[in-house]
Amino acid sequence: MNPALLFDVALAALAVVAALSAVAGRDLFASVAFYIVYGILIALAWMRLGAVDVALAEAAIGAGLTGVLLIGAWSQLHRKGATETPPGPSSAARLLAAGASASVAVLVAVIFVGLPADGAGLAPAVRENVAESGVSNPVTAVLLNFRAYDTLMETIVLAVALAAVWSLTRDELWGGIPGLRQHARDGGVLATFGRLLPPLGLLVGVYLVWAGSSMPGGAFQAATVLAAVWLLLVMSGAMDEPAIGSTAIRLTIVAGPALFLAYGTGGAFLGTFLGFPADVAGMLIVAIEYVLTVSIAATLALLVAGVPRRQE
Amino acid sequence: MTASGLAALPLLELTVVLPLAGLLLALPLGHHGARATLALAPIILLVTALLCIEIMWSGAPIERVAGGWDVPLGIALRADGISGAFLLTTALVACAVAVFQAQGGQDGGATRRSTFWPLFLATWGALNAVFVSGDLFNLYVALELLTLAAVAMVAYGSTEAAMRYLLFALSGSLVFLLGVALIYAGSGTFDIGLLGSAGAGDTAMTVAAAFMTAGLLAKAALFPFHAWLPPAHGNAPTPASALLSALVVKAPFFILVRIWFDIGPETSGVLMQLLGYLGVAAILYGSLLAMRQERLKLVIAYSTVAQLGYLFLVFPLAGAAQDLPWTAGTWSGAIFHALSHALAKAALFLAAGIVIEAVGHDRLQGLAGLARDLPMTVFAFGIAAVSIMGLPPSGAFIGKYLMLTGALAGGHVFLAIVMIGGGLLAAAYLFRPLRLMLLAGETQPAKAIARRRQVVPLLLALAAVGLGIAASLPYALLQIGRSLTATEGIE
Lengths: 312, 491
Prior knowledge:
B: mainly alpha, 2 strands, globular, DUF4040 domain-containing protein (chain A), transmembrane helix (chain A)
């Protein structure tokens, strides 16, 4: 048997097992752990499909940041003693959900098998126009140029998600600091890593944005790395979360989307909404991406931090 | 200004850009966001009105491609008559809600004061993005923005209701996205115009459209996916309830119209019949439950469940056989109904908000005699109720009349009976609170409400009626870019 095929079959089987364990398990913490494993396996699957950009995003956001969020949620539930007996749905509801999921899966599989085998979608059109886009990585060309309008709205979705999280703040804590003050044992693993990794992470983040124009990388991936640096600094006690009442923090959140939107609107008055002139497109895209990276990193980190829990 | 002068301005883009820019401004401004919104709202209304004039003037849809990349590579923005009509209704309702709220509405403390306006503008921007989108994936992104902002506004009133809404809406998003992915896999494009001109497509296309439809039904709260709506709309703060019930649930319906009329996948008619019967069930179930509620806002929320049912009758009446001579009229009738309901429902929720501010609760039994002290608000409630019932001369009457004509011409006697019966049921559940408020009673408002705020729901209710009186202009607007093959409706 072809070893590549063997690997793929094993990967698919493991992903299904991890997914089932995450959904069907009784232990909430085990479910979270399996969910993270599932994210990493899916990232590997994307690698096998040659979609390195998607794999990076899936590993960083699907397994990484979502994992941190879920573990945080679990530990809060645990502190309240709510993890012991998860109120499960009735077996009739379970059967119904399983039946609906299974029939959707079968339907999708049948349709998928019947699709034209040569369906390349828009890939040829992207290849044809990538030279005009200012960047040579086709994924970045799609995200920041061909479909920049979608990306612009997605960056705004992130800012609105943060506003939505903040809207749950108790009134007396409005403007306060999210999360609890973290302390790490001096000389412990966390304290050491908290000083060692951030400079490296910063470098990787800056590099990823730059690299994104010609190879896998870009604003979203770089922002996730920077958000991880932020989280590590907070967890190791080297830095505290900022107060959300701070104007500087809120300006940082909106700066990237605002610049992107302002650029696009300026273009609309000059003739083309979100248009990038081919000769300067590369420079403009990287400039916008750097500002976006800072905003997205702050937004992701603050999304994980959650609602304010204390005043300064 | 001439037509070419209007065309020189990027009005289409600005309808999306301005609310989104406003939200990015309001987020750092915190509690000063109210003033920024009040300054921006009339500008957005003006831009929207100018765009409608441009569409009417040119007699054709306005089309742009973002980034200058032609479809299928780029994303098309397209404003036809139905886009213009929804954009303008949204702008009117949003302006009314902004004025109502910013001039001394209950603002619920520091958190809501600082976060409401970004969420409000995000809702407006997302709605506009839906109404001008020509691209299925772009519609998904716009829906996500809409859902996030809407769920957060519900959470001010009840986190439990918000959680239930979030679960319904996110499941809907995923199923919708699955359909979008299948369409792309089958046809290599997200563009609605290209998909429409490619013909009916194969079974895979129909299955994909069915997935998208199922996802959108959860977001539109069509029976039996309605369970999240009454607690969400009934417990949200007043301005949020008005936006949610008037507009947010119309966005998924708008996309369904795009899918089944503009793309027009092959359908045996069974799916269209099913949507119609779910609509019938929604009308009956929503109306019966509205009659049994003891809180004013829940009566209005269940009324939304029922009224949304009417919109879905357009699918059996005009969806399966689009080349019949009356289908264009039926289609226009359903859109009229949606627009009129938006104006009237916003009026009802704002009027209910005034009642709550004045007496501190909305339990029906405690509202007897309120008309003596709040005549303008009760009058606004009454006018809006006339519109919901579909009585002449309201816009809903025109809508219902057009749909009834189509139903009778097409031999759908059962649907015609349900439409008339639904009007009677609406009269029953709306007369109950109205009768109580008009009755002689002891209710004394604890707080006086400024007249400049009481007039807002009245103006919205009058606009719903005005839609029926001056129906020819909006009717003409709706016909621009209409994709039905039928030449002219019977009028």
